[in-house]
Design a protein that fits this description.
This protein has 126 residues and is mainly beta.
Amino acid sequence: MERTPHEIGDIMRQAPVSVFIRAGTARRSGNGIALVLGDRTFFLPPEEMGVLHSDRNAAIVNDEGDQEGIAWFSPVLAKKKQELTALIHDRIYTLSCRDLQALFNGARNGITIREYRSLQVSSPGA
């Protein structure tokens, strides 16, 4: 007698998986840090960088100066910060603090911005 997939525990289920995909590029600009995401450019103004170092959220603005999102250093409760995290239009983006430092020092002209996504993938399960 042939066994069905259910009987041998080969049922495919959806499991959430967190991934980071390349979303754009950050570079220095006259308006602070320019975050180029597709055909849109947002800015982390220089005056907001000081806010970040005081463990508060900083404003992400568009080219007209209107707030489009917020940014913060993370992990929030750790002394050593690993990433700059930005929430823009209900999407989460990250930049490595090491890359950000290289950008400020002039060692790099642009750095990669990654977008956090939660995907549903099929996985075998019983």
